[in-house]
Specification:
Length: 446
């Protein structure tokens, strides 16, 4: 009963092929669905397409029009901007059309709903690059701080690019995660994403809700008849312990400079402004957030802001705790890498009987494959001490696959000459048998 069922609800075998909000449950409404309408609406709104305010508002509030009719909640909406198919987040703001020449075919559709911000592909124009950075942050805010279940594609947290290829299924290296590229973004986009995730967890009762956003939860400050894509709304925090608390969101998705009029009688603090350079773009410690001393906040084109009203600064949350936890995880990962590089002679071998059995099975396999008669059990004499020095047997991972599981191919063994020397006084089979006994103890799956 705790299994989570998620559908990608479009299939060419159905009459209309597109079943977002109508995926057959075959019983109780348990299925969650990839919300393609969230993707399309947010892409169009953020890049400035006129007349998208109403659709955008519906999507960030949980898509009640799609999931409420059959008893499902906003968490059944899997919100996403990008997926395994199509552009990555970086390419979404860098290309107007697909560039799939690497496939050797005209593969993939070209309905990207993207905008290159003024130049196709990489550019040295600082203004265009700054706009692209803002747009990626705008997308992340809309994704992670909205009602529903967010889905983030690996690599989007650092701006991974496929160089405009929107159908990279047959391009192996093009789809790889680059740890070096991520390291370059540690203090900027990666940090921004990490703090956003911490904010979502902190205010999970507002974004991970089990009921749809209603009028008692939100205060819209929007001129709906204006086609320009400017939206402002306030989410009320009903779980505030002292006085009033809420989060104000404003998206200025167009070429104009706009003033965001702030509700009177309340004190607002800036948590996010995607127009500002890192680290000012997002506030990690809310107790240090910048206080807004005027009745309005000036917004640059294609930017968004998140402000918080706090009746008591004691309620401020320090999101830098997530940074400390992240650093600890990184240190643990480095420690594990060191562990797997240890010499095998540093590890204590357990009772060898079950290992001998596994080694015997391995020897039989090797015998059948090589055609050489290898008899393990006859060669092992438990009364004699093991005289094989395994000090030169080193377990290490190849540099290009440091995160892959250990395999037999990643074990460096002594050469044949060294093995011959070891067998000189003890017979040909015994040292080899004990060698495979040790390997079997390290690799139980053999």
């Amino acid at each position: 009963k705790h299994v989570k069922l998620i559908a990608e609800p479009w299939d060419c075998s159905w009459p209309d092929g597109y079943l977002v909000g109508r995926f057959p449950s075959c019983g109780a409404p348990r299925w969650a669905e990839w919300n393609g309408k969230f993707r399309d609406a947010v892409r169009s709104f953020i890049k400035g397409d006129e007349g998208m305010k109403g659709e955008f508002a519906t999507r960030v509030c949980g898509s009640a029009d799609l999931f409420k009719h059959n008893g499902r909640g906003p968490f059944h909406s899997i919100n996403f901007i990008t997926a395994h198919d199509g552009f990555t987040l970086r390419d979404l703001v860098s290309y107007n059309g697909k560039h799939n020449e690497c496939n050797g075919e005209d593969s993939g559709d070209d309905h990207n709903n993207s905008w290159n911000c003024g130049a196709e592909g990489p550019t040295g124009d600082g203004g265009i690059n700054h706009l692209r950075e803002r747009q990626m942050r705008n997308f992340l805010v809309a994704l992670l701080l909205s009602a529903g279940t967010p889905m983030l594609v690996f690599g989007d947290e650092y701006g991974r690019s496929q160089r405009g290829c929107n159908n990279g299924w047959c391009q192996d290296a093009l789809s790889w995660f680059s740890w070096s590229d991520m390291a370059k973004q540690e203090g900027s986009l990666v940090r921004f994403t990490r703090v956003l995730i911490s904010m979502r967890k902190r205010y999970m009762h507002m974004f991970g809700r089990d009921h749809f956003v209603s009028e008692k939860d939100i205060w819209w400050r929007v001129h709906w008849d204006d086609p320009y894509n400017y939206v402002c709304y306030v989410l009320h925090d009903h779980k505030a312990s002292k006085g009033y608390s809420g989060l104000l969101f404003a998206f200025n998705a167009g070429h104009e400079f706009r003033d965001c009029d702030l509700p009177e009688g309340k004190t607002w603090y800036r948590l996010i402004d995607t127009n500002l350079p890192s680290p000012k773009d997002v506030c990690e410690d809310e107790s240090e957030a910048t206080k807004i001393n005027s009745g309005s906040y000036g917004m640059h084109p294609y930017s968004c802001i998140v402000l918080r009203c706090m009746a008591d600064k004691a309620e401020a949350f320090d999101h830098s705790g997530s940074e400390a936890a992240y650093s600890q995880l990184q240190e643990t990962a480095e420690h594990l890498k060191e562990v797997v590089r240890r010499r095998a002679s540093m590890e204590l071998l357990p009772n060898l009987e079950p290992e001998q059995i596994r080694a015997g099975e391995l020897m039989k396999r090797l015998s059948s494959m090589s055609g050489l008669p290898l008899n393990l059990m006859a060669a092992i004499d438990e009364e004699k001490p093991m005289d094989v020095d395994f000090g030169d047997i080193i377990i290490e991972r190849a540099p290009s696959s440091t995160l892959l599981p250990l395999t037999m191919s990643s074990v460096r063994l002594p050469g044949l000459k060294e093995i011959d020397e070891l067998t000189a006084d003890n017979g040909a089979a015994a040292p080899l048998a004990r060698l495979f006994t040790m390997l079997a103890s390290l690799y139980p799956a053999l």
